[in-house]
């Protein structure tokens, strides 16, 4: 039972994501949304001004990560936080260090309810205070760049009921497979991961990976040859002998990426 009004700030760079959270929170009469923020800078200003009790925080934003935001706040004003992310790997990192809760997009309404009820259960009691202390410890002990995909050499993939830690440099190529993607490794192993081609590219965020077809991403560091049929078709030959077609809509950007003139 909650006997006080809980002030909430929603932080997400996606308008629709913020709107959905606002709609879901409308079912709770003890929730007061005091602000919405589309980037990290505004989030810092808003949290400092409104001192909310709870923040729904997107981890990956254009200007800074959710952890960067928390790192710039006064530790005495840290709110309870529900992390939101489109990538399982970020969620796992957040959960490993700070066991409050996280939502992986796209999430169901029922999952949102579970997340909120978990926070409300601990709100204001000793367990809640311990969570704040753990969050303070997280901010003090973990550099924000640890959560920046640009600096990660590994990625966490959800494979069935398990999570697999994979070295990005050892990925040979990636193929789409319905609602999943197949991450193929140098050693021939294959990991099935629920994601889209666009999301996995953002998650890996590595200059060596380039999409060559609507269903294929290749690691240029694992490419041995680029061949042409002489009739406009281009193929990428990987070091393991796999030959992949470069789609027509990706041909121009692919050749430009390799500084190869189209003739």
TrEMBL record:
The keyword Protein biosynthesis does not apply. Transmembrane segments: none annotated. It comes from the Bacteria. InterPro entries: CheY-like_superfamily (IPR011006), LytR-like (IPR046947), LytTR_DNA-bd_dom (IPR007492), Sig_transdc_resp-reg_receiver (IPR001789). Pfam families: LytTR, Response_reg. Residues 155-260 form the HTH LytTR-type domain. Keywords: DNA-binding, Phosphoprotein. SMART domains: LytTR (SM00850), REC (SM00448). The modification 4-aspartylphosphate is found at residue 58. Residues 7-120 form the Response regulatory domain. The keyword Phosphoprotein applies. GO terms for molecular function: DNA binding; phosphorelay response regulator activity. PROSITE patterns: HTH_LYTTR, RESPONSE_REGULATORY. PANTHER family: STAGE 0 SPORULATION PROTEIN A HOMOLOG (PTHR37299:SF1), TRANSCRIPTIONAL REGULATOR-RELATED (PTHR37299). This is DNA-binding response regulator. The lineage of its organism: Bacteria, Pseudomonadati, Bacteroidota, Flavobacteriia, Flavobacteriales.
């Amino acid at each position: 039972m909650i006997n006080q009004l809980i002030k909430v700030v929603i932080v997400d760079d996606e308008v629709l994501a913020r709107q959905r959270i606002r709609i879901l929170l409308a079912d709770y009469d003890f929730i007061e949304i005091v602000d919405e923020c589309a980037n990290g800078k505004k989030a810092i200003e808003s949290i400092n001004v409104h001192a909310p009790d709870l923040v729904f925080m997107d981890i990956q934003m254009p200007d800074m990560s959710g952890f960067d935001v928390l790192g710039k706040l006064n530790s005495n004003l840290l709110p309870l936080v529900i992390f939101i992310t489109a990538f399982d790997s970020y969620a796992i990192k957040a959960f490993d260090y700070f066991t409050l809760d996280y939502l992986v997009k796209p999430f169901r309404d029922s999952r949102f309810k579970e997340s909120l009820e978990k926070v409300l259960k601990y709100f204001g009691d000793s367990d809640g205070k311990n969570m704040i202390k753990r969050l303070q410890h997280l901010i003090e002990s973990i550099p924000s760049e640890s959560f920046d995909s640009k600096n990660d050499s590994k990625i966490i993939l959800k494979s069935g009921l398990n999570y697999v830690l994979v070295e990005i440099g050892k990925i040979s190529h990636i193929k789409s497979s319905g609602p999943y993607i197949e991450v193929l490794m140098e050693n021939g192993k294959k990991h099935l991961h629920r994601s889209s081609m666009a999301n996995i590219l953002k998650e890996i965020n590595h200059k060596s990976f380039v999409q060559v077809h609507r269903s294929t991403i290749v690691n240029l560091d694992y490419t041995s040859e680029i061949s042409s049929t002489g009739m406009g078709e281009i193929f990428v030959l990987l070091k393991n002998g796999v030959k992949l077609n470069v789609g027509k809509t990706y041909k121009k950007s692919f050749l430009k990426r390799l500084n190869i003139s189209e003739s």
